[in-house]
Amino acid sequence: MSLRLSTVILPYRRWNEGGRSAWTRAEQLGFHTAYTYDHLSWRTFRDGPWFGAVPTLTAAASVTERLRLGTLVTSPNFRHPVTLAKELVSLDDISGGRITLGIGAGGTGFDATALGQEPWSPRERADRFGEFVPLLDRLLTEDSVSYEGDFYSAHEARNIPGCVQRPRLPFAVAATGPRGLRLAARYGQAWVTTGDPKLYANGTPEQSVQAIHGQVEKLADACAAIGRDVNGLDKILLTGFTPDRGRPLESLDAFVDFAGRHQDLGFTELVIHWPIPDSDFAADQKIFERIAMEAPAQLG
How far apart are CA 46 and CA 53, in angstroms? Predict the structure, then answer.
């Protein structure tokens, strides 16, 4: 299976000061999808400009025609399924059916406390995610939904006319634990991983590939448990968080080698960060664009 190449554009620039041009250039370069992070702020960018994912994607939809768009990823940290579903239906309509929802359980970053709550434990994040995803699935496929759960409620929530994409826009579920992998198997059109975070600081690329191979095997087991063929589920690697870090973007050959190792694991899509000077995502823009234009053909 051919490997798709996508990018993620962090929303740190004003729309008329480089924000818009990145999205239009992503389409010109032939990327399959351009994603953005869905955070209120993020790590080293916390004290600088940072814009909302949904308005950014709405603007991106208005200046592109073919490029798929999406979040990587949205989480329950500050989202509610009822209001999120309304925004997604609207985004899917504005884009003409080009939206993918990357969705995960969330973490302990700034989003976790921005609304004034204490950070949730890993168990509570998993519990919430386990309720969030099925409810969101219903909200995007049924005209009217009522639901009373442990964490979320909906009372005659209407989402008419529904998504342009039928039965709904695709979910790309980020997960590595057993509960999340079961959600990916049941509700996902794609599965997302960043690799094993425990290997980022001191692991080797070889250890990372082995760890990701183990994740893929666990995903296959989760699919088999419900009678689903894992080959029908797209597999997405968000790069930049493995021990390789930014090295794959140092040259076309380095990227093709990196991508090929992960293509052999069954990945169907690799996502690379749009270069940001003086950050963890710094890269040579010319090399980045050469990778975008030439690597897919070499990976076949």
Answer: 15
